[in-house]
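FW: tagging you since you asked about this chain on Friday. Here's the raw sequence from the shared folder, copied in full. Didn't touch anything.
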Amino acid sequence: MKILVPVDFSASAANAFRYAVQLADMDASSIQVLHVLHAEAESLEAPLMAIQTTQEQLMETRKKLQQFVDENLSALGNQLKHIPQITSNMEFGNSASRTIVYIAERDDCDLIVMGSRGESRSRIEKLMGAVTSHVVERAIASVLVIPDGAQFQAIERVTYATNVDAADPFKLWQALDVLNPAKPKVDLLHVNIKVEGDPEAWDLLEQIAAFLLGHQQFSNIELHHIPGKDIALEVNGFIESNPTAMLIMYQPQHTFWNRLFHKSTTKSMALHTEVPLLVLKRH
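HL: got it, structure written out here
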């Protein structure tokens, strides 16, 4: 994989970078570290001074970026089997989130790994942070959101929360292919919000499991079809009772995504506090 890790030199970004490095260590993926600098408008009165300031800013940021990489690699100590290929990149942009989305698409990145931040006002932005929220919504590549303080752990068990969309089997197969070296146990989870029940969803869960068993070396798959009126609350309760290394979700269309992260349900959403969230994209 080609992994893009946007950093703003915060503790959240440092934690996400260390997680990405350990993830890349599993299958020799490469990492591109990206820092977005705010694009200042050049002064019409003193353009030469503006250019000089920009050059100084680039030099200072380049040193800071290298120091960031070196310090966090050093912090991992002997936890790595090998150090993955890491490149550093700086880009100017008026919007950090739009720049991240653009670079990920331009450089054909397979995965974006970002930290979550809770400094914004809206609930969805408190869940992931304003920049991360925008990237999750707009990026073509899949996005892995690393909660503040979450430490990389052996990926022995993952939970895939699904609305049993037709594209789910293939998308989950792609995600598990990335995690193949770990060969984790897979919990397929569907929250039934229909009062009368949903036998069709159970049949679709079985079809997803059959697809995976036929295309992957994953023999440990367990199905969970649980009732509940609040998807976020039920998913949260499930992973609290069944500890998992990663929560995986597919973003096929805005309807399911909005249902999950609508402000009426985010009150009970606490997934971001402990569990990394991998959002598979529709492309």
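FW: The CA atoms of residues 253 and 282 lie 8 Å apart.
HL: agreed, and The chain has nine helices and ten strands.
FW: great, closing this out.
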